[in-house]
Amino acid sequence: MTTEEKLQHFLGFCMEDARTRSAKMLDEYTAALEQTFLEHQEDAKRRAAHQVALESERIEREINKKLSLEQIGMKRVFGKKQDELKDKLFSELRDKLATFMGSPEYTKLLEKQIREAKALAGKEFITIYIDPADEEKINELAISGGSDIQVSEYSFLGGTRAVIPSRHILIDNSFQTKLAEAKHDFRFDVKDLMGGTAND
Fold first, then answer.
1. Which residue, of 27, 55, 142, 186, has the greatest Cβ tally within 10 A?
2. What whole-number distance in Å separates Cα of residue 86 and Cα of residue 76?
């Protein structure tokens, strides 16, 4: 083998070795780049998912806040409307009581209240008060009740009040107190307002 052939052989070998090593280095570099790219993609996805989660939470908080404010506003409006309706209802009830006070049934109710108060007092002294509007009934009630019946200085919208001083007892059957208690305890059922039934 001549020197030139040896050089040619050595050159071919070197070139082949250089190509092999170059291809191997290129493959390693490409794999490293792909790995870096994949890691970058995963990191970007994680950051994007985290950002989406944070934004979702923020939007949910804002929606909840708005819903809460809306509910408070609706409750306020609903409460105001309930109060208006309640006032109207009890105003109509007062009118009906005023009409009832002109009926014979009302006198019977007063007599019944007087009897029950006397029964509770037993032998104790009792003073029974009637409303100033019922002053014309005092003689009739005193005869039928056989008690100390007086006209109150203050109106209590009808009915009776009685005092048993020895036992510190006030028997309050006045319409004013009954109306106040009924108004205090009265609640509209939402189903009634919405036209539903109890079985809904």
1. 142
2. 15
Strand 159-164, strand 127-130: pairing: antiparallel
pTM: 0.60
- The mean of the pLDDT values for the chain is 87
Q: Per the structure block, which two tokens stand in for 72?
A: 């408070």
**One-letter amino acid for residue 144 of the chain:** S
Per-residue 3-state assignment (H helix, E strand, C coil) for the chain:
CCHHHHHHHHHHHHHHHHHHHHHHHHHHHHHHHHHHHHHHHHHHHHHHHHHHHHHHHHHHHHHHHHHHHHHHHHHHHHHHHHHHHHHHHHHHHHHHHHHHCCCHHHHHHHHHHHHHHHHHHCCCCCEEEECHHHHHHHHHHHHHHCCEEEECCCCCCCEEEEEEHHHCEEEEEEHHHHHHHHHHHCCCCHHHHHCCCCCC
Q: How many CB atoms lie within 10 A of CB 174?
A: 22
Closest CA to 186 of 85, 75, 100, 98: 85
Q: pLDDT per residue over 31-41, tens digit each? A: 989 999 999 99
